[in-house]
What does this fold into?
Amino acid sequence: MGAYNNIDPAIAGLLDGLDHDTISRCTKETAGIAYGLPVFMYAGNDVGAYAYHNNRSYVIFDADFVTGNSIDVTVDGEAVTTVPWNSTHDDTMTDLKNQIETDITGATVTLVGTGGNNRDFYITIEDDGDRVVTAVVTGGASQAVATITYDSTMVFKGMSVFTQQESAVKTDLEDNVIDAADAKYSLTDPINILVHGGIHGITADAVQSQTQAYCVASGGDQGKLTDDPTDNVILDGVFFEQDVSAAGIAKVRVNK
It folds into this structure.
């Protein structure tokens, strides 16, 4: 951990200073939540804690459906029952919404109607997954093409706090490894979340002190901290208090 009065800062989730406010919730992340990462929840659910996910997809077609069209959608690899043309474009869109909600557990489909043309919708699932959606139209005289993007409906709650664990590796009498504890909160563990104070957080890249903190929204570093706002998620009230020259651990201040 470090010498007396010189605590090693290279411990993700280690608190900094004496002024801290924390809360405890339940880890709902299947893969667990590492120490020193942003923690998120869903509006209206003040129990379950998650790492960051793009849990919502936005689907927009470039034209109306026409007679003879069939629409095939998959959500996270699960196929939705094919939706055939039904009298009008609007009726077919309603059928598509209803079929997705019927076939995909936990899915809510919201028809948007951008520009009044009723060609776009959101698919939202409040879980610990990142949406992967496909939508293909076949048949008929013409086929609309879908463009699909992703974002999140999660709400930032705070930072996961380091908690001392027992020995990282457990063995049986023959020295076979039977359990290797990770530096994280596992599924269903109570998780301590810093909502005010200083903490050492995991960064995806170099950061500068006194800059706004963001959560990396996609890719291999998803869920880590950065000071790059491009396509990332702002963490309101979170600022870096330390320069680091590469990915690693940096001191941050949470003021929620």
Remarks:
- The chain has a mean pLDDT of 92.
- The first helix runs from residue 89 to 103.
- Residues 198 and 253 are 5 Å apart (CA to CA).
